[in-house]
Amino acid sequence: MKRRLFLHRSLPLLALPLASMPALPRASRPTQSIATPDGQARDHERIVVGPVPILFKVLPKDTDGDLAAFVSANNVPGFGPPLHVHYSLDEFFCVLAGEFVFQVGADQTRLRPGDTLLIPRNVPHAFDCVSAQPGKLLVTMQPANHMDDFFRQLAQLLPGPGTPSDPEAIQKLYQAHDSTIVGPPLRLK
User: Fold this and answer.
1) Which of 37, 117, 186, 187 is the most buried (most CB within 10 A)?
2) Mean pLDDT for the chain?
C-alpha cells in the first residue's frame, strides 16, 4: 500500500522538468517575417490556371503545411471552380475587387470588396465572379498541406479558358489532395 501511495505522489513530480522545458522550434519554420510585394508571388513563382493567376503569398512550406495564402486575380465570369468539398482543410476568402457569388451547401451569398467568407471543411462549395470587371480574392487555407502543388498541377490541366479537356484527371487531382468534385460549376439561382 505504501508503494502505491509513493508512486501516486511521485509521478507528477517527475513530469515537472519536462513541463518546464521550452518547446523545440520546428526546423522548417522561418525565423523572420515574409513580405511579398503586390503583384508578385512568394519565391517569384507565377501559377496560372486558365486566365487566373494564383500568386502565393505564404507557401505551405513556410508553415510546415499549417497555412497557405494566395491572391487569385483576373477572375472572370464563367471560370469558377466546380462544386467541391475539402475534407481536411478550411478556406477563408476575402474579396479584394469585383463581386462574387459563393454557393456554400445549398445557400448562395453575394460578396463585394471587403466581404469575407469562411468555408469549413466537409462543406460543398463553388464560386464565380459576377462583376463586369475581373475579380480578385485573397484566399487562405488551413491546414494547407501541399495545396501549392494542387494549383501547379491544375494549371497544367487547365492551361487556358474553356471546358477542361480531361475532367477525369481533374477529379483525380482533387482526390489526391483530399477533396472531391461533387457537382458542376456554380449556377446562379
Assistant:
1) 186
2) 87
Residues 71-99 have a mean pLDDT of 96
Predicted confidence (pLDDT) at residue 19 exceeds the cutoff of 70 = no
Contact status, residue 70 vs residue 139, Cβ threshold 8 Å: yes
Locate cell 479584394: which residue?
A: 96
Q: Name the architecture of domain 51-183.
A: Sandwich (2.60)
Closest C-alpha among 155, 98, 164, 148 to residue 127: 98
Question: Which residue in this structure is represented by grid cell 474553356?
Answer: 162
- Cα of first residue to Cα of last residue in the chain, in angstroms, is 73
Contacts of 29 (CB under 8 A, 6+ apart): 62, 63, 64
- Please state, in angstroms and rounded to a whole number, the distance separating the CA atoms of residues 17 and 136: 51
